[in-house]
Amino acid sequence: MLENCQRHHMVLGLAALTLLTILVLIIESRYAAEGGSARHRSQQFVIENNATCWKHETYTVVQECHPCSEFDIVSRSLGVCIHTHFKEVLRCKSGEIVTKSCDRVALIDQRNFIKFEAIAFLIGVFSYLVSYARDRFLSRRNYQRIERQLNRVQ
């Protein structure tokens, strides 16, 4: 079936699929960034509400969002590690140090996705080039065979 499609139709279809993918990713990222489940998230972390100075005061981040240890998750010694398995350490202006739950760093996920897309694109370009070279090689061989047959007849 692909043999019957013209090249510009295939490029147009591929461009449409690419735009649709980008549109879906933008909508998904905005929905996630706006906190589509913010209402659910505030109810989810009841255990960590023992120190909420970071909600009212300015704070500095002592440790960025990082995974909890396997011991913290299994033993449930830190309530913040139960839901997301990630924690962040903050120091409030009052001097209180708070460990709070956080989602996995979106930047890392985004970076991994971009790497995946780049690798998939490079593999696609490489596959196209190999297919194109193979097609040219087979066409050239076919033309040479036809030319030899025509030369034999004459």
What does this structure look like?
This protein has 154 residues and is an alpha+beta fold. The chain contains five helices and three strands; from the N terminus they run H-H-H-E-H-E-E-H. It has a domain at 1-34. Strands 1-2-3 form a three-stranded antiparallel sheet, with no helix packed on it. The radius of gyration is 28 Å and the shape is rod-shaped.
Please outline what is shown here.
It comes from Drosophila grimshawi (Hawaiian fruit fly). Helices cover 60% and strands 14% of the residues. The chain has 154 residues and is an alpha+beta fold.
Label this structure with key terms.
single chain, 154 residues, alpha+beta, 3-stranded antiparallel sheet, 60% helix, signal
